[in-house]
Amino acid sequence: MTSRIVVYGGSGALGRAIVSTFIKKQWAVTSIDFFANQEATTNVLLEKSDSLEEQGKRVVDAIPGPIDAIVCVAGGWAGGNAASNGKPYGGLLTLTGAYPAQKGTPFMIGYGMAKAAVHQLVASLAGPDSGIPADAKVNAILPVTLDTPMNRSGMPNADFTSWTPCSEVAETIYGWATNAIPLTSGKLVEIVTKDSKTTYTEK
Question: Which residues contact 161 (CB under 8 A, 6 or more apart)?
Fold first, then answer.
């Protein structure tokens, strides 16, 4: 049976890398975004004029049956009760936090607040009675700087050896989704790259 993954933000830089990686691994990939990802198996296109409730209904209606993994690499997530996601016997839910948001971010307050909320959501979902399946695992990736075309355009003189390639993050998420890489539910995973070598540390 073909494994299935849903990628929120599948047309962004990291989203495209994740879609591409899982397609190559012969998974069925559903991309959810405002723009289509032609490489994905299926696209669920959202309308910016939709309310969060309307977006959630559009997603739920488009994805019947069990799924193996949900990865959110968009700026936010909308959907139903946590109990409606994932397989009854387990699965993976990965959200995107941020390394700097583990402490105060006076230079980017709004961003820090939003990402800190993601960190709290992970802790809540990993706790008892959260509504996710008992065998499911949830975590958040905390990158410092991802190596994306937009970041390169905005910071052309930066040290790119300290930036994390999106394809590498995608391979790690694939390892979590297939249990090839051990994962503790409820953890924030710091992603730090130095001299082109990346380390993943659970917090």
Answer: 193, 194, 195, 196
- Catalytic residue (choose from 8, 89, 111, 174): 111
Residues 6 or more apart in contact with residue 197 via CB below 8 angstroms: none
* 145 touches 100 (CB < 8 A): no
111 is known as an active-site residue: yes
For domain 4-202, give the CATH number.
Answer: 3.40.50.720
Contact by Cβ (8 Å): 133, 86: yes
Q: What is the pTM of this model?
A: 0.81
pLDDT in tens, 87-123: 666 789 999 999 999 999 999 999 999 999 999 999 9
Distance CA 116, CA 102 (A): 7
Q: Where are the domains of the chain?
A: 4-202
pLDDT at residue 177 greater than cutoff 50: yes
Can you tell me the mean pLDDT for 19-39? Answer: 96
